Amino acid sequence: MARSYRVHPKYLQEVNLAWKRKSEGRKKDLAERLGLSLCLVIDKLFLKGEPVNRVNFIEICQFLGLNWREIAGVEEQEKPISSPRVGENPSKANASSASRPPIVVSNTTGDVNDVDQAINELVSTLCEMLHRLTRKAGDLVRADRTSIFLLDQHRRVLGTVVADDGEGGGLVIDIPVGKGIAGLAATSSQVINVPFDVYDDPRSEAAKNTDQKTGYRTYSLLAWPVLNKQKDLVAVVQLINKLKANHDPEDDLSRRIDRTGFTKEDEARFAKFAPSILKLLEKSQFCYQLSLKVRNNAGVNQADAFQNAKLIAQLKRQERLLRNSLNRFKLEDKSSRKQKARH
Predict the structure, then answer these.
(1) Is there a domain that residue 93 lies in?
(2) What gap in Å lies between CA 315 and CA 120, rounded to an integer?
(3) Which of 57, 69, 91, 200 is the most buried (most CB within 10 A)?
């Protein structure tokens, strides 16, 4: 499981006040500075005492000028909590150790809290969808890690809430279009295949910075832009570190990787696969944009219950549509795995 932390209950009021002081009247500015994906994690997880990946937790605390060890309570309890799997409702994670009362779901009244609940459900389903797609894509070409970056059309940023951290958890990453290898793939709409060793490539600065934060090591990389029928960018799938066919999972990463990197055969295989997930990525991108729009307070009115009720209905409808697509994908994937097992 991914190493994660949550705000200790006794510091919840302090972190909420710190965020209020930082964000009051500056939400648009902060969205530009931190990225909307990280702002979403702050609002929906961090400030509510839910598990947050260690890298993001430390980054948030540093931004707020707080001692992350103290805020996480690691000095009192050195053992970190486990992170919920992507797609799992964070409020249900670590239920055995939590003493919080169950969440009561009220009828939709147009209350802002109902909007929060609706957006949480949508984001949860979105995370599960992207998590399953990353696993499927990674398995296809034996990539050690996979990330799917959805295009934020308004800010021209590639954002993901589920960059695979290799331990069943996820990281939050935003990449400006044109920056980093994934960003360059987005700008050019061209596949970029960087063989071993990525660090020798002059475009690898972003990969090095991310590795420094996570403690991981990128050796080979395949960035694949996914375009719709109009040739507009929907997402970039980034596959990292091609693995040997018969590797020992217990070996160090440097021994498990295939130094050939991703091959032309891998590219051909992924070219056949990409169209099969296009519609799912388009739906995911729409939901991603909608969640960011709501997070940025566009359309949420504290006093207008009718307007909020309409927004809630839209969020719930999109969550149902995405959930239906997810369930179909799970069934198809299960059937495909059974067929492979027979052969």
Answers:
(1) no
(2) 10
(3) 57
Confirm whether 131 is domain-assigned. yes
Domain span holding position 52: 3-83
> What is the distance, to the nearest Å, from the Cα of residue 315 to the centroid of all Cα atoms in its chain?
19
Strand-by-strand arrangement of the 81-82 sheet: 52-53, 3-5, 81-82
Secondary structure (3-state) at 253: helix
State pTM to two decimals. Answer: 0.64
| Residue ending a domain, choose from 259, 278, 297 | 278
Residue 103 belongs to some domain of the structure: no
pLDDT of residue 177: 65
Select the more confidently predicted residue: 313 or 305. 313
Q: Give which of 183, 225, 190 is closest to 204, Cα–Cα.
A: 183
Is the separation of the CB atoms in 132 and 124 below 8 Å?
A: no
- Give the pLDDT confidence score for residue 159 in this predicted structure: 65
The CA–CA distances, whole Å, from 140 to 81, 181, 186 equal 32, 21, 22
Per-residue confidence band for 343, with pLDDT thresholds at 50, 70 and 90: low
| Exposure string for 129-155, b = 16+ CB within 10 A, e = fewer | bbbbbbebbbeebbbbbbbbbbbbeeb
From the CB of residue 208, how many other CB atoms can be counted at a distance below 10 Å? Answer: 13
- Number of domains present in the structure of the chain: 3
